[in-house]
Amino acid sequence: MHTGSARRIFNYRLSRARRISENVFRNLSARFRVLRKPLLLEPEKVKKIIKILANLYLVTGEETQEATVRFIVCKM
Question: Whole-model pTM?
């Protein structure tokens, strides 16, 4: 494969992955207020919070209540 083609393919895939992750985070922050400002926590706790919120987003659909999210974040 030509190097220019390989670079173009890599850049396309990188751009697509970035776009997808930005869209996911935008959807999460639209649903959960806690993500609209900086999380002043250790990186490991932030990873856990993001994973929990992503799962809540998928499982609960539109019916997630803010109290549930606040409870989970406080328990970490």
Answer: 0.59
